[in-house]
Amino acid sequence: MAVTGGGPHRGGGTAGTGGGAGPVAPGRGPRTRGWPGSLRDYAVEIRGSVRDAERGPLLVVAGLIVIWIVFQALDDKFLSPRNLSNLSVDIVGTGLVAVGIVFVLLIREIDLSVGSVSGLAGAAFAVLNVNHGMPEWCAVIVAIAAGMAVGAFHGVFFAWLGVPAFVVTLAGLLIWNGLTLDLLGASGTINIDEEGLVASLTSRHFGDDVAAYAVAALGTAGYFLAAHRKRARHRAAGMPHRPAGEIGVRTGLLAVLAFAAAHTLNRFQGLPLALLIFLVVLVVSDYVLRRTRYGRRVYALGGGVEAARRAGISVERVRVAMFMVSGTLAAIGGLFVASGLTSASPTTARAAGSGMLLINAIAAAVIGGTSLFGGRGSPWSVLLGVLVIQSVASGMGLLGVEDAVQFMITGGVLLAAVAADALSRRAAARRGRP
After folding, report:
1. Which residues contact 389 (CB under 8 A, 6 or more apart)?
2. Is the C or the N end of the chain the one with fewer CB within 10 Å?
3. What pLDDT score was predicted for residue 103?
4. Pick from 192, 188, 176: which is nearest to 331 by CA?
5. What does pTM read for this prediction?
6. How far apart are CA 281 and CA 328, in angstroms?
């Protein structure tokens, strides 16, 4: 599932079609048959698929493989089970924030406050639980609710009062970062319980090998059933659809990747709880966006505000909801960051407010394939993007590269991803596609 990364616009279709194909390119017919008649026919099918909607994710996967090969050549510990297991946990905090960013980017907007909201959630939890003795589960609920309220605050100013989202969330970045510093105090660091609920989010592993293999099997089976169900619907409606053989090949490749990952995790401490939660969030988010009426409204709004309004969509409500999703996931991501550090402090709050978490989250979303121009992307794209970002950080950390160089490399990767997106849009416009 992570490799495909496509949204409802697959093959040039519109948001309302749920993945229908656009005009068929010269030299190849619609994909309505089983296995192509020859290897050459199948190569044409693959080339057409790569040339269209799946080129971006495939390029990201290729880039990720190159990154892993380079860092493994420079340090043989990079692909060790320990480092890869740590990597699978490290991606979760930023990844959850990036999923929220995807929802906002899909409607052609941006949320610059997610780093500060994450820091605020971590600080609120620590103050309530440690300083005031509130039970952890209750403090977690309050922290997440605070993130949701902040998102609603931003959404109301943007959607109903007409203040640009850039300005609203930039102001929010400063306001919530200042509130975090005030909660923690000028020099206070609050350590959370290392055996508590929040700390266990990143420290807990399912040591039984069956857990990781069960998740791999469940994910593979889920993809296979979803792909066949989609094929059956499109075939019944007379729409272009994937050949059954292609679905089998994709399922086989996914199974190899999933079980290889499970085997690697089991060689260290087993399946991390953090990774399992992240995968569940990706599945639920993807289902909401691609399989529900509300998700189609989100993509429609990303395609054009006036067209969405004329179609009867409540633009203001959708916008507010997207910022609420962003704020909620930023708060949850902040709890995972606090879990990894087992503390909340003014130092980490300033770091969040300065923008590194924000930049990494936006970079993860865009590198994975979510467009800054709206209407294209999916939560699964975050998995690829955050793996690229965190792999670079992990590799450079093992090599002892200075932070300044890491910032420059991360910025360069982000610029390249945005430039590729812009060029892809320009090429699609020249071909007369959306």
Report:
1. 94, 360, 363, 364, 367, 410, 413
2. C
3. 95
4. 176
5. 0.84
6. 12
